[in-house]
Amino acid sequence: MSKSSYNIAVIIAGIDEEYQSEILSGIEEFKSRNRVNIAVFVSFSGVMGNQRHDVGEFNIFNLPDFKLFDGAILLTNTIGYQPVINDIFARIRKAGIPTVSVDYDVKDFYHIGIDNGRAMRDITEHIIHKHGCRTFNYVSGPKDNPESKERYESFLEVLKENNISIEKERIYFGDFRSPSGREAVNAFVESGKPMPEAIVCANDDMAISAMIALNALGYRIPEDIIVSGFDNTYRAHNYPTELTSVERPLHRSGKLACEILFNHFNNIPQERSTILDMHPHFTESCGCADCSETATDVKALKNINYKKFSKFESTTQYMSLVNRMSSQLVECDSLFEFTRSLKPFISEIKPELFCMCICSDWNIEAETSHGSAAPVTVNGYTKDILVPLSYKYGRFSSLPPFASADILPGLFDATPKGRMYYFIPLHFRERALGYIVIMNSRFPLQSSMFQTWCITMSNMLENVRKIISLDLAVQKLNKLYTVDTLTGIFNRNGFVNNATPQFEQCIKNHRPVMLMFIDMDGLKLINDNYGHDAGDNAIRTIANIIEDSCVNSEVYCRFGGDEFIIFGAGFSSDEAQNLTQKINANTEFYNQRNDVPYTIAASIGFHIAYPDEGDDLFNLVTIADNIMYKAKKKKKLSKYLKT
Fold it and tell me: Is the peptide bond before 222 cis (omega within 30 degrees of 0)?
Protein backbone atom coordinates (compact mmCIF):
# COMPACT_ATOMS: atom_id res chain seq x y z
CA MET A 1 0.00 0.00 0.00
CA SER A 2 1.40 3.40 -0.91
CA LYS A 3 -0.32 6.77 -0.83
CA SER A 4 0.47 10.44 -0.35
CA SER A 5 -0.43 10.65 3.35
CA TYR A 6 -1.24 8.29 6.22
CA ASN A 7 -3.35 8.43 9.37
CA ILE A 8 -1.95 6.93 12.56
CA ALA A 9 -3.67 6.45 15.91
CA VAL A 10 -1.66 6.66 19.14
CA ILE A 11 -2.95 5.21 22.42
CA ILE A 12 -1.34 6.60 25.55
CA ALA A 13 -1.97 7.60 29.16
CA GLY A 14 -0.36 10.39 31.21
CA ILE A 15 1.40 12.60 28.67
CA ASP A 16 2.38 14.92 31.53
CA GLU A 17 5.09 12.38 32.45
CA GLU A 18 8.50 12.77 30.80
CA TYR A 19 8.61 9.19 29.50
CA GLN A 20 5.42 9.70 27.48
CA SER A 21 6.14 13.26 26.36
CA GLU A 22 9.61 12.33 25.06
CA ILE A 23 8.23 9.49 22.94
CA LEU A 24 5.47 11.78 21.65
CA SER A 25 8.03 14.44 20.78
CA GLY A 26 9.75 11.85 18.56
CA ILE A 27 6.43 11.06 16.88
CA GLU A 28 5.81 14.78 16.42
CA GLU A 29 9.21 15.28 14.81
CA PHE A 30 8.46 12.54 12.29
CA LYS A 31 5.05 14.08 11.61
CA SER A 32 6.64 17.45 10.88
CA ARG A 33 8.88 15.95 8.20
CA ASN A 34 6.32 13.69 6.57
CA ARG A 35 2.74 13.94 5.34
CA VAL A 36 1.13 12.04 8.17
CA ASN A 37 -1.77 12.79 10.50
CA ILE A 38 -1.34 11.64 14.10
CA ALA A 39 -4.40 11.22 16.33
CA VAL A 40 -3.31 10.82 19.97
CA PHE A 41 -5.99 9.41 22.28
CA VAL A 42 -5.00 10.43 25.81
CA SER A 43 -6.22 9.48 29.27
CA PHE A 44 -4.97 10.80 32.61
CA SER A 45 -5.85 7.67 34.52
CA GLY A 46 -4.34 6.35 37.72
CA VAL A 47 -3.51 9.76 39.21
CA MET A 48 -6.59 10.55 41.32
CA GLY A 49 -6.89 7.33 43.30
CA ASN A 50 -10.50 7.26 42.12
CA GLN A 51 -11.72 4.28 40.11
CA ARG A 52 -14.83 6.09 38.85
CA HIS A 53 -12.64 8.90 37.54
CA ASP A 54 -10.45 6.37 35.73
CA VAL A 55 -13.49 4.80 34.04
CA GLY A 56 -14.32 8.23 32.63
CA GLU A 57 -10.73 8.70 31.47
CA PHE A 58 -10.51 5.26 29.86
CA ASN A 59 -13.62 6.01 27.79
CA ILE A 60 -11.54 8.04 25.32
CA PHE A 61 -10.04 4.75 24.14
CA ASN A 62 -13.52 3.67 23.00
CA LEU A 63 -13.68 6.60 20.57
CA PRO A 64 -11.44 5.49 17.68
CA ASP A 65 -12.66 3.05 15.07
CA PHE A 66 -9.28 1.61 14.19
CA LYS A 67 -10.54 0.60 10.73
CA LEU A 68 -10.39 4.29 9.84
CA PHE A 69 -6.62 4.40 10.44
CA ASP A 70 -3.70 3.12 8.41
CA GLY A 71 -1.73 2.11 11.49
CA ALA A 72 -1.40 2.47 15.26
CA ILE A 73 1.26 3.13 17.89
CA LEU A 74 0.57 1.82 21.38
CA LEU A 75 2.00 2.86 24.71
CA THR A 76 -0.33 0.57 26.62
CA ASN A 77 2.32 0.06 29.29
CA THR A 78 1.27 3.52 30.53
CA ILE A 79 -2.40 2.58 31.01
CA GLY A 80 -2.11 0.27 34.02
CA TYR A 81 -5.45 -1.57 33.68
CA GLN A 82 -5.30 -4.84 31.80
CA PRO A 83 -8.99 -5.20 30.76
CA VAL A 84 -8.77 -1.84 28.95
CA ILE A 85 -5.51 -2.91 27.30
CA ASN A 86 -7.00 -6.25 26.21
CA ASP A 87 -9.98 -4.46 24.64
CA ILE A 88 -7.66 -2.17 22.67
CA PHE A 89 -5.66 -5.16 21.42
CA ALA A 90 -8.83 -6.99 20.35
CA ARG A 91 -10.21 -3.99 18.43
CA ILE A 92 -6.92 -3.37 16.65
CA ARG A 93 -6.60 -7.02 15.65
CA LYS A 94 -10.16 -6.91 14.33
CA ALA A 95 -9.31 -3.79 12.29
CA GLY A 96 -6.28 -5.58 10.86
CA ILE A 97 -3.98 -2.55 10.78
CA PRO A 98 -0.20 -2.65 11.35
CA THR A 99 0.64 -1.69 14.93
CA VAL A 100 3.79 -0.81 16.84
CA SER A 101 3.83 -1.47 20.58
CA VAL A 102 6.45 0.52 22.51
CA ASP A 103 8.02 -1.25 25.50
CA TYR A 104 5.29 -3.91 25.63
CA ASP A 105 6.00 -6.93 23.44
CA VAL A 106 2.68 -8.11 22.00
CA LYS A 107 2.28 -11.05 19.65
CA ASP A 108 1.42 -10.04 16.06
CA PHE A 109 2.48 -6.41 16.65
CA TYR A 110 5.76 -4.70 15.87
CA HIS A 111 7.75 -4.03 19.03
CA ILE A 112 10.26 -1.42 20.16
CA GLY A 113 11.91 -1.94 23.51
CA ILE A 114 15.03 -2.22 25.57
CA ASP A 115 16.46 -5.09 27.56
CA ASN A 116 14.92 -4.10 30.90
CA GLY A 117 16.43 -7.10 32.64
CA ARG A 118 19.97 -6.34 31.45
CA ALA A 119 19.66 -2.68 32.41
CA MET A 120 18.39 -3.42 35.92
CA ARG A 121 21.08 -6.08 36.32
CA ASP A 122 23.79 -3.56 35.50
CA ILE A 123 22.46 -1.05 38.05
CA THR A 124 22.03 -3.62 40.84
CA GLU A 125 25.40 -5.33 40.27
CA HIS A 126 27.12 -1.93 40.29
CA ILE A 127 25.62 -1.02 43.67
CA ILE A 128 26.62 -4.42 45.12
CA HIS A 129 30.14 -4.73 43.70
CA LYS A 130 31.22 -1.10 43.41
CA HIS A 131 29.65 0.20 46.63
CA GLY A 132 29.47 -2.98 48.71
CA CYS A 133 25.76 -2.72 49.60
CA ARG A 134 24.08 -5.77 51.12
CA THR A 135 20.72 -4.42 52.33
CA PHE A 136 18.27 -3.23 49.68
CA ASN A 137 14.77 -1.85 49.39
CA TYR A 138 12.96 -1.80 46.05
CA VAL A 139 10.30 0.53 44.63
CA SER A 140 8.54 -1.28 41.79
CA GLY A 141 6.07 -0.23 39.13
CA PRO A 142 2.67 -1.99 38.80
CA LYS A 143 2.72 -5.76 39.29
CA ASP A 144 1.01 -6.49 35.96
CA ASN A 145 3.12 -4.09 33.85
CA PRO A 146 5.53 -6.10 31.62
CA GLU A 147 8.42 -3.63 31.95
CA SER A 148 7.89 -3.43 35.68
CA LYS A 149 7.94 -7.22 35.98
CA GLU A 150 11.15 -7.55 33.95
CA ARG A 151 12.98 -5.00 36.11
CA TYR A 152 11.70 -6.46 39.37
CA GLU A 153 12.55 -10.05 38.44
CA SER A 154 16.04 -9.06 37.26
CA PHE A 155 16.64 -7.18 40.53
CA LEU A 156 15.64 -10.25 42.58
CA GLU A 157 17.76 -12.52 40.39
CA VAL A 158 20.90 -10.43 41.00
CA LEU A 159 20.28 -10.40 44.75
CA LYS A 160 19.89 -14.18 44.72
CA GLU A 161 23.12 -14.65 42.73
CA ASN A 162 24.93 -12.61 45.38
CA ASN A 163 23.31 -14.43 48.34
CA ILE A 164 21.37 -11.36 49.42
CA SER A 165 17.90 -11.87 50.87
CA ILE A 166 15.15 -9.26 50.92
CA GLU A 167 12.05 -9.22 53.13
CA LYS A 168 8.65 -8.43 51.65
CA GLU A 169 8.43 -5.28 53.82
CA ARG A 170 11.34 -3.88 51.81
CA ILE A 171 9.44 -4.05 48.51
CA TYR A 172 6.84 -1.47 47.53
CA PHE A 173 4.65 -1.68 44.43
CA GLY A 174 3.87 1.75 43.02
CA ASP A 175 2.49 2.98 39.70
CA PHE A 176 5.54 4.62 38.05
CA ARG A 177 4.25 8.07 39.10
CA SER A 178 6.04 10.48 41.37
CA PRO A 179 3.87 10.12 44.52
CA SER A 180 4.73 6.42 44.71
CA GLY A 181 8.32 7.27 45.69
CA ARG A 182 7.22 9.30 48.71
CA GLU A 183 4.63 6.70 49.67
CA ALA A 184 7.26 3.95 49.43
CA VAL A 185 9.64 5.77 51.81
CA ASN A 186 6.79 6.27 54.29
CA ALA A 187 5.95 2.56 54.08
CA PHE A 188 9.60 1.59 54.63
CA VAL A 189 9.81 3.80 57.73
CA GLU A 190 6.52 2.51 59.13
CA SER A 191 7.59 -1.12 58.62
CA GLY A 192 9.98 -0.86 61.56
CA LYS A 193 12.82 -2.39 59.56
CA PRO A 194 16.21 -0.65 59.66
CA MET A 195 16.66 1.64 56.66
CA PRO A 196 18.64 0.00 53.83
CA GLU A 197 21.98 0.87 52.32
CA ALA A 198 20.37 1.31 48.91
CA ILE A 199 16.92 1.89 47.43
CA VAL A 200 16.55 0.76 43.83
CA CYS A 201 13.59 2.32 41.97
CA ALA A 202 11.95 1.14 38.76
CA ASN A 203 11.90 4.65 37.25
CA ASP A 204 13.23 8.16 37.81
CA ASP A 205 10.00 9.86 38.88
CA MET A 206 9.59 7.52 41.85
CA ALA A 207 13.33 7.71 42.64
CA ILE A 208 13.41 11.51 42.81
CA SER A 209 10.28 11.60 44.94
CA ALA A 210 11.90 9.04 47.24
CA MET A 211 15.06 11.19 47.53
CA ILE A 212 12.97 14.23 48.48
CA ALA A 213 11.19 12.20 51.16
CA LEU A 214 14.49 10.82 52.48
CA ASN A 215 16.05 14.30 52.63
CA ALA A 216 13.02 15.53 54.60
CA LEU A 217 13.65 12.74 57.12
CA GLY A 218 17.30 13.79 57.49
CA TYR A 219 18.94 11.09 55.33
CA ARG A 220 21.83 12.11 53.09
CA ILE A 221 22.20 10.74 49.58
CA PRO A 222 24.42 8.85 48.89
CA GLU A 223 26.24 9.07 52.24
CA ASP A 224 23.42 7.40 54.21
CA ILE A 225 21.37 5.73 51.48
CA ILE A 226 22.15 5.14 47.80
CA VAL A 227 19.22 5.70 45.41
CA SER A 228 18.95 4.67 41.76
CA GLY A 229 16.30 5.22 39.07
CA PHE A 230 15.57 4.12 35.53
CA ASP A 231 14.99 6.11 32.26
CA ASN A 232 17.52 8.96 32.76
CA THR A 233 14.96 11.73 32.34
CA TYR A 234 15.43 15.51 32.52
CA ARG A 235 14.55 15.49 36.22
CA ALA A 236 17.21 12.84 36.89
CA HIS A 237 19.87 15.23 35.57
CA ASN A 238 18.59 18.37 37.23
CA TYR A 239 17.71 17.30 40.74
CA PRO A 240 20.33 18.76 43.14
CA THR A 241 21.74 15.25 43.57
CA GLU A 242 22.04 13.87 40.05
CA LEU A 243 20.38 10.47 39.85
CA THR A 244 22.06 7.22 38.91
CA SER A 245 19.81 5.84 36.21
CA VAL A 246 19.54 4.01 32.88
CA GLU A 247 19.73 6.10 29.74
CA ARG A 248 17.30 5.09 27.02
CA PRO A 249 16.45 6.70 23.67
CA LEU A 250 12.81 7.70 24.29
CA HIS A 251 12.68 10.36 21.58
CA ARG A 252 14.19 7.86 19.14
CA SER A 253 11.50 5.31 20.10
CA GLY A 254 8.76 7.68 18.92
CA LYS A 255 10.44 8.39 15.59
CA LEU A 256 11.26 4.74 15.04
CA ALA A 257 7.65 3.67 15.67
CA CYS A 258 6.56 5.91 12.77
CA GLU A 259 9.41 4.69 10.57
CA ILE A 260 8.41 1.06 11.17
CA LEU A 261 4.84 1.82 10.08
CA PHE A 262 6.06 3.63 6.97
CA ASN A 263 8.30 0.69 6.08
CA HIS A 264 5.26 -1.55 6.41
CA PHE A 265 3.13 0.74 4.25
CA ASN A 266 5.81 0.64 1.56
CA ASN A 267 6.51 -3.11 1.80
CA ILE A 268 10.06 -2.64 3.09
CA PRO A 269 11.25 -5.81 4.91
CA GLN A 270 12.08 -5.35 8.61
CA GLU A 271 12.32 -7.24 11.89
CA ARG A 272 9.21 -7.55 14.04
CA SER A 273 11.05 -6.55 17.23
CA THR A 274 13.70 -3.85 17.67
CA ILE A 275 15.72 -3.61 20.89
CA LEU A 276 17.35 -0.21 21.32
CA ASP A 277 20.67 0.46 22.99
CA MET A 278 20.76 1.68 26.57
CA HIS A 279 23.45 2.09 29.21
CA PRO A 280 23.65 2.88 32.91
CA HIS A 281 24.44 6.42 33.98
CA PHE A 282 26.32 6.18 37.28
CA THR A 283 26.52 9.52 39.06
CA GLU A 284 25.97 11.38 42.34
CA SER A 285 23.11 9.44 43.93
CA CYS A 286 25.27 6.32 44.17
CA GLY A 287 28.50 8.22 44.85
CA CYS A 288 29.92 7.90 41.32
CA ALA A 289 29.84 11.53 40.10
CA ASP A 290 31.74 11.68 36.82
CA CYS A 291 33.16 15.12 36.22
CA SER A 292 33.26 14.48 32.49
CA GLU A 293 29.49 13.91 32.45
CA THR A 294 28.35 16.57 34.90
CA ALA A 295 28.05 20.26 34.22
CA THR A 296 31.14 21.90 35.70
CA ASP A 297 31.67 24.76 33.27
CA VAL A 298 29.80 28.04 33.47
CA LYS A 299 28.22 27.68 30.03
CA ALA A 300 26.70 24.30 30.86
CA LEU A 301 25.40 25.55 34.21
CA LYS A 302 23.83 28.56 32.50
CA ASN A 303 22.17 26.25 30.01
CA ILE A 304 20.70 24.12 32.82
CA ASN A 305 19.50 27.23 34.67
CA TYR A 306 17.92 28.55 31.49
CA LYS A 307 16.00 25.30 30.99
CA LYS A 308 14.83 25.39 34.60
CA PHE A 309 13.79 29.03 34.28
CA SER A 310 11.93 28.35 31.03
CA LYS A 311 10.12 25.42 32.61
CA PHE A 312 9.23 27.53 35.64
CA GLU A 313 8.01 30.38 33.44
CA SER A 314 5.88 27.99 31.38
CA THR A 315 4.35 26.44 34.49
CA THR A 316 3.63 29.87 35.99
CA GLN A 317 2.05 31.09 32.76
CA TYR A 318 -0.24 28.09 32.40
CA MET A 319 -1.08 28.03 36.10
CA SER A 320 -2.36 31.58 35.70
CA LEU A 321 -4.33 30.44 32.64
CA VAL A 322 -5.96 27.59 34.56
CA ASN A 323 -6.82 29.78 37.54
CA ARG A 324 -8.31 32.53 35.40
CA MET A 325 -10.24 30.05 33.30
CA SER A 326 -11.62 28.31 36.38
CA SER A 327 -12.79 31.58 37.95
CA GLN A 328 -14.59 32.56 34.73
CA LEU A 329 -16.21 29.22 33.95
CA VAL A 330 -17.52 28.69 37.48
CA GLU A 331 -19.83 31.68 36.93
CA CYS A 332 -21.51 30.10 33.90
CA ASP A 333 -24.99 28.63 34.14
CA SER A 334 -25.61 27.73 30.50
CA LEU A 335 -23.69 26.11 27.66
CA PHE A 336 -23.82 29.41 25.74
CA GLU A 337 -22.14 31.29 28.60
CA PHE A 338 -19.63 28.45 29.03
CA THR A 339 -18.46 28.53 25.41
CA ARG A 340 -18.42 32.33 25.33
CA SER A 341 -16.27 32.49 28.48
CA LEU A 342 -13.95 29.75 27.22
CA LYS A 343 -13.01 31.48 23.96
CA PRO A 344 -10.22 33.80 25.20
CA PHE A 345 -8.49 30.94 27.00
CA ILE A 346 -8.49 28.80 23.85
CA SER A 347 -6.75 31.62 22.00
CA GLU A 348 -4.03 31.70 24.70
CA ILE A 349 -2.91 28.09 24.09
CA LYS A 350 -2.47 28.89 20.38
CA PRO A 351 -3.79 25.72 18.72
CA GLU A 352 -4.36 25.55 15.00
CA LEU A 353 -7.64 23.82 15.82
CA PHE A 354 -9.70 23.29 18.97
CA CYS A 355 -13.08 21.56 19.16
CA MET A 356 -15.28 20.94 22.17
CA CYS A 357 -17.28 17.85 21.24
CA ILE A 358 -20.05 16.92 23.66
CA CYS A 359 -22.47 14.01 23.87
CA SER A 360 -26.00 14.73 22.70
CA ASP A 361 -27.30 13.58 26.11
CA TRP A 362 -24.73 15.52 28.15
CA ASN A 363 -27.34 17.55 30.07
CA ILE A 364 -30.44 15.32 29.92
CA GLU A 365 -31.97 14.31 33.24
CA ALA A 366 -34.82 12.14 31.92
CA GLU A 367 -36.58 9.81 34.30
CA THR A 368 -37.67 6.24 33.84
CA SER A 369 -41.14 5.01 34.61
CA HIS A 370 -39.82 4.01 38.02
CA GLY A 371 -38.70 7.56 38.75
CA SER A 372 -34.97 6.85 38.76
CA ALA A 373 -32.46 8.75 36.66
CA ALA A 374 -31.96 7.54 33.12
CA PRO A 375 -28.70 5.64 32.45
CA VAL A 376 -25.76 7.85 31.52
CA THR A 377 -23.23 7.31 28.77
CA VAL A 378 -20.21 5.45 30.12
CA ASN A 379 -18.91 3.10 27.42
CA GLY A 380 -18.35 4.99 24.19
CA TYR A 381 -20.11 8.16 23.16
CA THR A 382 -23.61 9.02 21.98
CA LYS A 383 -24.39 8.36 18.32
CA ASP A 384 -24.49 12.09 17.63
CA ILE A 385 -21.91 14.58 18.86
CA LEU A 386 -22.56 18.31 19.31
CA VAL A 387 -19.86 20.94 18.68
CA PRO A 388 -20.87 24.14 20.48
CA LEU A 389 -17.37 25.60 20.15
CA SER A 390 -14.85 25.27 17.35
CA TYR A 391 -11.67 27.25 16.72
CA LYS A 392 -9.66 26.92 13.53
CA TYR A 393 -6.79 29.06 12.32
CA GLY A 394 -7.74 32.02 14.51
CA ARG A 395 -11.52 31.99 13.98
CA PHE A 396 -14.30 30.73 16.24
CA SER A 397 -17.40 29.00 14.94
CA SER A 398 -19.86 26.26 15.77
CA LEU A 399 -20.09 23.07 13.74
CA PRO A 400 -23.21 21.06 12.95
CA PRO A 401 -23.67 17.77 14.84
CA PHE A 402 -21.77 14.79 13.48
CA ALA A 403 -21.65 11.05 14.05
CA SER A 404 -19.26 9.99 16.83
CA ALA A 405 -18.12 7.17 14.54
CA ASP A 406 -16.45 9.87 12.40
CA ILE A 407 -14.39 11.03 15.44
CA LEU A 408 -14.00 14.57 14.01
CA PRO A 409 -15.17 16.17 10.75
CA GLY A 410 -12.26 16.67 8.36
CA LEU A 411 -9.91 14.48 10.42
CA PHE A 412 -8.58 12.71 7.34
CA ASP A 413 -8.71 15.58 4.85
CA ALA A 414 -5.69 15.87 2.58
CA THR A 415 -3.06 18.26 3.94
CA PRO A 416 0.26 19.59 2.62
CA LYS A 417 1.82 19.03 6.05
CA GLY A 418 1.32 16.60 8.90
CA ARG A 419 -1.13 17.31 11.70
CA MET A 420 -1.06 16.11 15.29
CA TYR A 421 -4.38 15.87 17.13
CA TYR A 422 -4.88 15.24 20.84
CA PHE A 423 -8.21 13.72 21.91
CA ILE A 424 -8.85 14.17 25.64
CA PRO A 425 -11.99 13.00 27.50
CA LEU A 426 -14.53 15.33 29.06
CA HIS A 427 -16.26 13.51 31.88
CA PHE A 428 -17.40 13.62 35.47
CA ARG A 429 -16.54 10.43 37.30
CA GLU A 430 -17.58 7.66 34.91
CA ARG A 431 -20.12 9.78 33.03
CA ALA A 432 -18.96 10.71 29.53
CA LEU A 433 -19.67 14.36 28.72
CA GLY A 434 -17.70 14.35 25.47
CA TYR A 435 -14.12 15.11 24.49
CA ILE A 436 -11.91 17.97 23.36
CA VAL A 437 -9.65 18.01 20.32
CA ILE A 438 -6.49 20.09 20.05
CA MET A 439 -4.41 20.19 16.87
CA ASN A 440 -0.81 21.33 16.45
CA SER A 441 -0.41 23.02 19.83
CA ARG A 442 2.67 22.86 22.05
CA PHE A 443 0.53 23.09 25.19
CA PRO A 444 -0.13 19.32 25.69
CA LEU A 445 3.59 18.46 25.74
CA GLN A 446 5.00 21.77 26.91
CA SER A 447 3.22 22.19 30.22
CA SER A 448 2.69 20.06 33.31
CA MET A 449 -0.53 22.08 33.76
CA PHE A 450 -2.23 20.50 30.75
CA GLN A 451 -3.84 17.74 32.81
CA THR A 452 -5.16 20.30 35.32
CA TRP A 453 -6.49 22.42 32.45
CA CYS A 454 -8.40 19.44 31.02
CA ILE A 455 -9.81 18.35 34.38
CA THR A 456 -10.86 21.93 35.14
CA MET A 457 -12.76 22.12 31.86
CA SER A 458 -14.54 18.82 32.61
CA ASN A 459 -15.48 19.90 36.12
CA MET A 460 -16.76 23.29 35.00
CA LEU A 461 -18.86 21.68 32.24
CA GLU A 462 -20.30 19.30 34.84
CA ASN A 463 -21.04 22.35 37.00
CA VAL A 464 -23.08 23.85 34.14
CA ARG A 465 -24.86 20.52 33.62
CA LYS A 466 -25.82 20.38 37.28
CA ILE A 467 -27.11 23.96 37.22
CA ILE A 468 -29.25 23.13 34.19
CA SER A 469 -30.45 19.94 35.89
CA LEU A 470 -31.25 21.88 39.06
CA ASP A 471 -33.24 24.43 37.06
CA LEU A 472 -35.19 21.60 35.43
CA ALA A 473 -35.87 20.09 38.83
CA VAL A 474 -37.09 23.46 40.15
CA GLN A 475 -39.36 23.78 37.13
CA LYS A 476 -40.77 20.31 37.79
CA LEU A 477 -41.34 21.14 41.46
CA ASN A 478 -42.91 24.46 40.52
CA LYS A 479 -45.19 22.66 38.09
CA LEU A 480 -46.22 20.21 40.82
CA TYR A 481 -46.85 23.20 43.10
CA THR A 482 -48.88 25.24 40.58
CA VAL A 483 -50.46 22.73 38.18
CA ASP A 484 -53.40 20.43 38.90
CA THR A 485 -52.22 16.89 38.23
CA LEU A 486 -55.63 15.61 37.10
CA THR A 487 -56.49 18.28 34.53
CA GLY A 488 -53.15 19.87 33.62
CA ILE A 489 -54.45 23.43 34.22
CA PHE A 490 -53.50 25.65 37.17
CA ASN A 491 -54.40 24.70 40.73
CA ARG A 492 -55.13 27.39 43.37
CA ASN A 493 -51.43 28.16 43.81
CA GLY A 494 -50.96 28.62 40.07
CA PHE A 495 -54.07 30.78 39.90
CA VAL A 496 -52.89 33.07 42.70
CA ASN A 497 -49.36 33.39 41.23
CA ASN A 498 -50.68 34.36 37.80
CA ALA A 499 -53.87 36.30 38.58
CA THR A 500 -52.56 38.43 41.45
CA PRO A 501 -50.18 40.61 39.35
CA GLN A 502 -53.00 41.37 36.89
CA PHE A 503 -55.43 42.05 39.77
CA GLU A 504 -53.00 44.54 41.34
CA GLN A 505 -52.41 46.23 37.98
CA CYS A 506 -56.19 46.67 37.56
CA ILE A 507 -56.38 48.31 41.02
CA LYS A 508 -53.57 50.68 40.07
CA ASN A 509 -55.14 51.59 36.71
CA HIS A 510 -58.76 51.60 37.93
CA ARG A 511 -59.79 48.87 35.51
CA PRO A 512 -62.57 46.32 36.06
CA VAL A 513 -61.95 42.64 36.80
CA MET A 514 -64.15 39.64 36.18
CA LEU A 515 -64.37 36.56 38.41
CA MET A 516 -66.28 33.60 37.02
CA PHE A 517 -67.18 30.55 39.11
CA ILE A 518 -68.01 27.23 37.38
CA ASP A 519 -69.44 24.20 39.16
CA MET A 520 -69.97 20.93 37.33
CA ASP A 521 -73.50 19.47 37.35
CA GLY A 522 -74.24 15.79 37.97
CA LEU A 523 -70.73 14.55 38.91
CA LYS A 524 -72.11 12.38 41.75
CA LEU A 525 -74.46 10.61 39.36
CA ILE A 526 -71.58 9.91 36.96
CA ASN A 527 -69.38 8.56 39.78
CA ASP A 528 -72.16 6.41 41.23
CA ASN A 529 -73.18 4.89 37.89
CA TYR A 530 -69.91 4.65 35.97
CA GLY A 531 -67.17 4.86 38.54
CA HIS A 532 -64.60 7.45 39.52
CA ASP A 533 -62.53 6.99 36.37
CA ALA A 534 -65.51 8.26 34.38
CA GLY A 535 -65.92 11.07 36.91
CA ASP A 536 -62.26 12.04 36.53
CA ASN A 537 -62.68 12.03 32.75
CA ALA A 538 -65.71 14.34 33.10
CA ILE A 539 -63.67 16.77 35.24
CA ARG A 540 -60.86 16.74 32.65
CA THR A 541 -63.45 17.40 29.93
CA ILE A 542 -64.73 20.54 31.71
CA ALA A 543 -61.11 21.71 32.16
CA ASN A 544 -60.44 21.18 28.43
CA ILE A 545 -63.62 23.10 27.51
CA ILE A 546 -62.55 26.02 29.73
CA GLU A 547 -59.05 25.96 28.22
CA ASP A 548 -60.47 26.01 24.67
CA SER A 549 -62.87 28.83 25.53
CA CYS A 550 -60.37 31.18 27.22
CA VAL A 551 -58.42 32.83 24.42
CA ASN A 552 -58.02 36.40 25.76
CA SER A 553 -55.33 36.00 28.43
CA GLU A 554 -57.78 34.84 31.10
CA VAL A 555 -56.34 33.00 34.10
CA TYR A 556 -58.27 29.87 35.04
CA CYS A 557 -57.81 26.97 37.44
CA ARG A 558 -59.40 23.96 39.03
CA PHE A 559 -60.48 25.44 42.35
CA GLY A 560 -61.15 22.08 43.94
CA GLY A 561 -63.22 18.95 43.28
CA ASP A 562 -65.51 19.83 40.36
CA GLU A 563 -65.19 23.62 40.79
CA PHE A 564 -63.31 25.99 38.49
CA ILE A 565 -62.69 29.76 38.47
CA ILE A 566 -61.71 32.19 35.72
CA PHE A 567 -60.15 35.63 36.15
CA GLY A 568 -60.29 38.27 33.41
CA ALA A 569 -58.59 41.69 33.60
CA GLY A 570 -60.45 44.64 32.05
CA PHE A 571 -63.55 42.53 31.31
CA SER A 572 -66.92 44.13 30.71
CA SER A 573 -70.22 42.47 31.51
CA ASP A 574 -70.79 41.78 27.82
CA GLU A 575 -67.40 40.08 27.49
CA ALA A 576 -68.14 37.94 30.53
CA GLN A 577 -71.52 36.99 29.07
CA ASN A 578 -69.88 36.08 25.76
CA LEU A 579 -67.38 33.85 27.57
CA THR A 580 -70.25 32.14 29.41
CA GLN A 581 -72.05 31.47 26.15
CA LYS A 582 -68.84 30.17 24.57
CA ILE A 583 -68.29 27.70 27.43
CA ASN A 584 -71.90 26.50 27.16
CA ALA A 585 -71.61 26.15 23.37
CA ASN A 586 -68.37 24.17 23.61
CA THR A 587 -69.99 21.95 26.24
CA GLU A 588 -72.96 21.24 24.01
CA PHE A 589 -70.66 20.56 21.08
CA TYR A 590 -68.79 17.99 23.18
CA ASN A 591 -72.01 16.24 24.22
CA GLN A 592 -73.13 15.97 20.61
CA ARG A 593 -69.82 14.66 19.25
CA ASN A 594 -68.68 12.23 21.96
CA ASP A 595 -70.22 8.86 22.63
CA VAL A 596 -70.20 8.68 26.43
CA PRO A 597 -73.19 7.50 28.54
CA TYR A 598 -73.49 10.79 30.43
CA THR A 599 -73.98 14.47 29.74
CA ILE A 600 -71.40 17.13 30.59
CA ALA A 601 -73.01 20.20 32.17
CA ALA A 602 -72.00 23.05 34.47
CA SER A 603 -73.49 26.02 36.32
CA ILE A 604 -71.77 29.36 35.77
CA GLY A 605 -71.82 32.68 37.62
CA PHE A 606 -69.66 35.77 37.19
CA HIS A 607 -69.08 39.06 38.96
CA ILE A 608 -67.63 42.33 37.56
CA ALA A 609 -65.99 44.75 39.99
CA TYR A 610 -63.68 47.78 40.14
CA PRO A 611 -61.33 46.72 42.97
CA ASP A 612 -59.80 49.21 45.38
CA GLU A 613 -56.51 49.13 47.26
CA GLY A 614 -56.73 46.47 49.95
CA ASP A 615 -59.49 44.42 48.26
CA ASP A 616 -59.08 40.66 48.40
CA LEU A 617 -59.23 38.68 45.16
CA PHE A 618 -60.94 35.76 46.86
CA ASN A 619 -63.71 37.95 48.23
CA LEU A 620 -64.69 38.45 44.59
CA VAL A 621 -64.43 34.68 44.06
CA THR A 622 -66.93 34.21 46.89
CA ILE A 623 -69.34 36.69 45.30
CA ALA A 624 -69.06 34.84 41.96
CA ASP A 625 -69.62 31.55 43.78
CA ASN A 626 -72.86 32.86 45.32
CA ILE A 627 -74.06 34.06 41.91
CA MET A 628 -73.27 30.64 40.41
CA TYR A 629 -75.14 28.90 43.25
CA LYS A 630 -78.28 30.94 42.57
CA ALA A 631 -78.07 29.95 38.89
CA LYS A 632 -77.68 26.29 39.87
CA LYS A 633 -80.77 26.41 42.12
CA LYS A 634 -82.89 27.65 39.25
CA LYS A 635 -82.04 24.51 37.28
CA LYS A 636 -84.39 21.54 37.58
CA LEU A 637 -83.01 18.59 39.50
CA SER A 638 -82.84 16.63 36.24
CA LYS A 639 -80.75 13.60 35.50
CA TYR A 640 -77.43 14.05 33.74
CA LEU A 641 -77.42 10.58 32.31
CA LYS A 642 -78.12 9.82 28.65
CA THR A 643 -81.07 7.48 28.03
Answer: yes
